[in-house]
Amino acid sequence: MTSARTVNVLGIGGSLREGSQSEHALRIALDGAAEVGVRTSLLTGPELVLPFYDAGVPERDERATRLVEAIRQADGLIVVSPGYHGALSGLVKNALDYVEDLRDDRRPYLDGRAVGLAAVAYGWQAAVTTLEQLRTITHALRGWATPLGGSINSAETKFDEAGGASDEKSVRTLRLIGRQVAEFAVTRAA
Asked: What gap in Å lies between CA 75 and CA 181, rounded to an integer?
């Protein structure tokens, strides 16, 4: 890492199912970011069970406050969602809605931050449409979606507990997404 300060990359996603395929994918992408020498952190599953986002209610519970502060401190993000019925999960969408709390920050929303994106679904159609929705949301939040995004068909690719997958191309893609986020963040910080 060439920056004088620590660069932070935050991973958000997964599902409520422990050891979900999307959480495994997120961890692999974060490993790719760590290879660049940045600090990584992760918010998944139960940590993302938040009240429905309501801009009219300024009070935040402990989990929502932790999420917003983690995003505020992040120099880059990696977001991985399962694809449910052709769309991102409500869990991930609600977490991303909380980015609205950063609207008045010095760096509003995701401004100036690279955001690596991947979708994991049982079938190509849901994986691709979910990734496209994640890209649209990232752009609306002023984030820089990395050039490479990941659409993973879990009918064909199975992740394992050792941090790998049955399809090495999927692992390489996810690691590259993580590296792209980290390299962008390090360059911005320099």
From this structure: 9
Contact status, residue 171 vs residue 28, Cβ threshold 8 Å: yes
Does the pTM surpass 0.90? The reply is: yes
Residue 131 CB burial class (10 angstroms; 0-12, 13-18, ≥19) = buried
pLDDT at 42: 97
34 vs 176: CA distance, rounded Å? 11
Mean pLDDT value across residues 120-132: 97
How do beta strands 8-13 and 76-84 pair? parallel
For position 19, what pLDDT does the model report?
85
pLDDT over threshold 50, residue 3: no
Q: How far, in Å, are 24, 70, 102, 103, 137 from residue 97 at the CA level? A: 23, 14, 10, 11, 9
Give per-residue pLDDT as tens, 63-83: 999 999 999 999 999 999 999
